[in-house]
Amino acid sequence: MGKGFVEALPSLAIAFFIILMTWIVARFAVRISDAVVGRTEIRSSLKNLIDTLVRLGIWTLGIFIAAVVVIPDLTPASLLAGLGIGAVAIGFAFQDIFENFLAGVLIMLREKMRIGDVIECEDITGKVEHITLRETHVRKLSGELTVVPNSILFKNPVEIFTDVDQRRHQVVVGVSYDTQLDHAADIIRRAVEGVDDVLASKGVDIFAQEFNSSSVDFLVRWWAGSTPRAGWESKDKVIRAIKAALDDAGIEIPFPYVTHTFKETVPVSLLGDTTQKTP
């Protein structure tokens, strides 16, 4: 065994040198890939996928050459046969890892959900910061970082808030029952259209929605920026503008009323004995 080990040292040294060269070539290949891809308008997630595939291909080739140097009898056919048997066992043992890997590839290939988008999936809301082949990093709006397995984002519905620059926002406004509804709707419309953040060119919707317990409710919808902050800022300005306009017009925004009804009661002592018959 010792003699065989000594005889194998040159092959091991050559294999180690091949692995070292593979590492160097992989680094330079990724830089070349970045330089070539950087001239195009390709998405960041797809760029990461190309870099990963280039690195993976070079490492696969380098490891195979090193293995042939150490084991001269190794052929591509025998290697593939061994990999096939091993892949079945590894596939069962690391099923979740491979599932996330394939989901990561598909997520990077599709056009939607780019880095920088604000998304919501499975009660997770935040900004996509990084996408890898196994996981996606989502920065919550409160600042925490959530590492989400790619299979969750691939198998469940994902709501993308920033897919376009604008989206529709809404608020419910109630007016008292003695209000002339057409007049109130006109005042609300003019107040919303006067807000700077509102895209009045895309229209403002005012719908009488329902008869509530103390008010007639209007559903007010408008278009503004798609980011959560843009939505909060526009909603704040819209509510302030509607409140000021209704106050100036003398239209009440009622709070819930509670009506108490009291019935006059007669003491039992004044009723007399109802069991006695009158003569």
TrEMBL record:
Alphabetized Gene3D superfamilies for the sequence: 1.10.287.1260, 2.30.30.60, 3.30.70.100
The Mechanosensitive ion channel MscS C-terminal domain, residue ranges: 171-253
Protein name: Small-conductance mechanosensitive channel
Taxonomic lineage of the native organism: Bacteria, Pseudomonadati, Pseudomonadota, Alphaproteobacteria, Sphingomonadales
Membrane topology classification: Multi-pass membrane protein
SUPFAM superfamilies: Mechanosensitive channel protein MscS (YggB), C-terminal domain (SSF82689), Mechanosensitive channel protein MscS (YggB), transmembrane region (SSF82861), Sm-like ribonucleoproteins (SSF50182)
UniProt keywords, alphabetically: Cell inner membrane, Cell membrane, Ion channel, Ion transport, Membrane, Transmembrane, Transmembrane helix, Transport
Subcellular location: Cell inner membrane; Cell membrane
